[in-house]
Amino acid sequence: MLALPLALLASKIACRSDLDCSLNGLCTDGACVCDVPWGGARCQTLLLAAGREGVGGIPLAAYHGDSLNATSWGASVLHAPEDGRYYMWVAAMTNKCPLADWMTNSEVHLAVSDEPLGPFAKIRTLVSPWAHNPQTIRAPDATVASGHAYVLFTLGDGKNYHGDPKVCDGRSPAPPMPPVPPPPWVVKPCRFGPPHGQHSWAGCMVANFTLFWSETPAGKWREHTAQILDWPVHHTGRPWDYGPYGNWNPAPIVHPNGTIFVQVRASSSFRLRYTS
């Protein structure tokens, strides 16, 4: 006799905790009150809107890349005191290809807006395929007049480690080019022990990787070869991961004392942290 009333009661209750609201809202009196821009009975639907139109009167940052249906993700936004504008470094797919082709068609765009919530307009392609997951910092630099430089870390450095970009927009593909081979390495003893649970290291190597820097976001961007002194080498004799070692999901942070910390993925099970 109790089964039917309980079933009816359960059907009317949309949530019992904030977890039932997908962590995109609060469970209030058995119903989800969603944060902007989420909607749905369990706040499971992202209500996309362009720029100032927004949702609920709150504008949303928007970036459409080269077309309205172009895929973009992983934006890094900074306010530039030089001109008061907001700059976005964002990964995007080229040649109208889907996200499934990220191994060959991802690139990094530079965009700008007068307000932090956008919309952002593309300035140019900053790093050609293969590159994505951009992270930009404004770091102290005594070698430039302003005393600061903008430094862009990316996954990939614009070289075709996985083959030429695919063509998904109907154009004829360019003649194929051979993939760029990974840089050479020399195994040496590590200055530190392996992370907990990692016992399959053969040693370490000095890993060169490419980052990009400019005195101002809209100025001239230059390539710079940096080094990681202790990049792990697997017991098979090959470095962890592939391509431009050290450019794998970088997360740079500028400490108040000016030290730059970079945490970077080195395998599927651990991360490495470096300082500069």
Automatic annotation (TrEMBL):
Signal sequence range: 1-17
Keyword list, A-Z: Signal
Keyword Signal carried by entry: yes
Entry protein name: EGF-like domain-containing protein
Taxonomic lineage: Eukaryota, Haptista, Haptophyta, Prymnesiophyceae, Prymnesiales
